[in-house]
Sequence to fold (128 residues):
Amino acid sequence: MFNPEWVNHRGLLVEKQAYTEIQELLMAKREELANRLERIKGNLIGGHSADAQEQAQELENAEVADALGNEARLELSKIARALEQIKNDTYGTCVSCEEEIPSERLKAYPFADRCIRCATAEEIRTAG
Ligand SMILES: [Zn+2]
Fold:
């Protein structure tokens, strides 16, 4: 069955179905990271503060002390953003040229917000 919504403005077939796969991948990754953060938190924080703000502060300190925690938290925020974009139907669109990012690229780099062409241009630009 052919769905005209699968074709973008350049007439290329867009695999909307692939986002479901990416979404599942992201959600699995999110759970894995949440578990990892729990373990890091458990390792670095001995007791539990009653105050939620103190707990948050302790967690923050612990994460600053632990590069792994920082990395996991950063990735979690990227995952949250990507999932939000999938929900809002803005996922997979290049932020520079607003064209669809090929799903093959998204599967390899689920957090990519630029198409290969724009990402390459950006790299050249920032490299000076
Ligand atoms: Zn682009």
